[in-house]
UniProtKB/TrEMBL annotation:
Organism of derivation: Trapa natans
Residue ranges, compositional bias (Polar residues): 10-21
Species classification: Eukaryota, Viridiplantae, Streptophyta, Embryophyta, Tracheophyta
PROSITE patterns linked to this entry: PROTEIN_KINASE_ATP, PROTEIN_KINASE_DOM, PROTEIN_KINASE_ST
Gene Ontology MF term list: ATP binding; protein serine/threonine kinase activity
Protein name: non-specific serine/threonine protein kinase
Region of interest (Disordered), residue spans: 1-40
InterPro entries, A to Z: Kinase-like_dom_sf, Plant_Ser_Thr_Prot_Kinase, Prot_kinase_dom, Protein_kinase_ATP_BS, Ser/Thr_kinase_AS
Keywords: ATP-binding, Kinase, Nucleotide-binding, Serine/threonine-protein kinase, Transferase
Bias (Low complexity): 22-40
Length: 285
């Protein structure tokens, strides 16, 4: 959910990765079943292989058995963003825009009132936009860690696709590293080290689950900073469940951002996706 930009790869029909997890079997349906919500979002069965391990190393991180998200109405989010007013835009890209919003129990209409959130409004005409929306809900809806951005809820109403996140006051790391203007100040080295360690903790947590989560888009625009410059990974639209114990890697389409993707991942056409590829992306940042 990097505020500065989204990826700009063209929309295309996704090639499914073989997996026994329900993330790969979600259909766009409005029927309510045991493992599917009314929005078509998988609840992940409790006996899924997508479970946490190494909890002692990450005492503040855990994986929920089911997504724990609030379902917003489109009217609520339209009010929160002042009808998606242009001056509330935090960032935009090929699949939609991110808006700053204000929520409270009564959805206060007073500018600045209530809890501040970031609302991502995806392009409903894009198949890739829906796939990324679904992936965000299914991963961030269950993953909880101090160095992962918190997904608060979602909206799937008619053709509208929206996601609601905690608001990150300091924006993206990319803006602090490469932004221009008098308001952008160079980060001191102690803060740079703090941010790097925090981002590494988030990535390590993803790799510590029994079935690893392969992030696939580690870059400075996807590292968001809160008011104390704590780093949190965002934008799980390209995330995939990692290989099982019997496999060393998974096969996917080449996705991500040029310059950050591991050479072996790009050169093999997506056949070399492992957690090591994510670590190499981290060294670029």
């Amino acid at each position: 959910m990097g505020y500065c930009c989204f990826r700009s790869s063209p929309a295309e029909s996704p090639t499914p990765v073989t997996s026994n997890l329900s993330t790969e079997r979600i259909s766009r349906t409005t029927a309510t079943t045991t493992n599917t919500t009314s929005s078509g979002v998988s609840n992940f069965s409790k006996d899924s292989h997508f479970s946490a391990s190494g909890g002692e190393a990450f005492p503040d991180g855990h994986i929920l058995p089911d997504p724990n998200l609030r379902i917003f109405t489109f009217a609520e989010l339209r009010a929160a963003t002042k009808s998606f007013r242009p001056d509330t835009v935090l960032g935009e890209g090929g699949f939609g825009k991110v808006y700053k919003g204000w929520l409270d129990e009564k959805l206060s209409l007073r500018m600045g009132g209530g809890s501040v959130v970031a609302v991502k409004k995806l392009n409903s005409q894009s198949l890739q936009g829906y796939e990324e929306w679904r992936s965000e809900v299914n991963f961030l809806g269950r993953l909880s860690h101090p160095n992962l951005v918190k997904l608060m809820g979602y909206c799937l109403e008619d053709k509208e696709l929206l996601l609601v996140y905690e608001f990150m006051q300091k924006g993206s790391l990319e803006n602090h590293l490469f932004g221009r203007g008098s308001t952008v100040q160079p980060l001191p080295w102690n803060l740079r080290l703090k941010i790097a360690i925090g981002a590494a903790h988030g990535l390590a947590f993803l790799h510590q689950s029994e079935r690893q989560v392969i992030y696939r888009d580690f870059k400075s625009s996807n590292i968001l900073l809160d008011g104390s410059y704590n780093a949190k990974l965002s934008d799980f639209g390209l995330a995939k469940v990692g290989p099982s114990a019997s496999r060393s890697h998974i096969t996917t389409r080449v996705m991500g951002t040029n310059g950050y993707a591991a050479p072996e991942y790009v050169s093999t056409g997506g056949n070399g996706m492992t957690k090591m590829a994510g670590l190499k992306s981290e060294t670029v940042v």
